[in-house]
Amino acid sequence: MSDVLDELEHNPQEGKALFYLKLLSLIVLVIGFGLYIGDVLFGKSSLDILLNLQADKDTLSQKIQSLKEENSILQKEYFELRQLDPDR
After folding, report:
1. Residue 78 has pLDDT above 60, yes or no
2. CB-neighbour burial class of residue 24 (10 A; exposed 0-12, middle 13-18, buried 19+)
3. Is the pTM of the predicted complex or chain greater than 0.85?
4. Distance CA 85, CA 88 (A)
5. What pLDDT is attached to residue 67?
6. Under DSSP, is residue 43 helix (H, G, I), strand (E, B) or coil?
7. Same-domain check for residues 38 and 50
8. Are residues 48 and 87 in the same domain?
9. Can you tell me the distance from the alpha carbon of 33 to that of 27, in angstroms, rounded to the nearest whole number?
10. Cα 68 to the chain's mean position, in Å?
11. Cα atoms in the Cβ-side hemisphere of radius 13 Å centred on 49
12. Degrees (nearest 5) of the Cα angle 64, 69, 73?
């Protein structure tokens, strides 16, 4: 163990080089992880899913509107028939 310490004391450049190598690898790792998370959140597959959901929302909104109109027509017919019912 003392041999390693003696070697570092005699050659401090190796200690600095090791420190900078560790720092550089940490920076590369953080940037790589950031790019991965960015791709997961904002990548092409996420965009496709968002666009599909928006299209589904529009389709469902149109269907809801048409069903409301159909319901109002059927309710009107029902109430007209209900008033003509002699059993009332």
Report:
1. yes
2. exposed
3. no
4. 6
5. 98
6. coil
7. no
8. yes
9. 10
10. 33
11. 7
12. 145
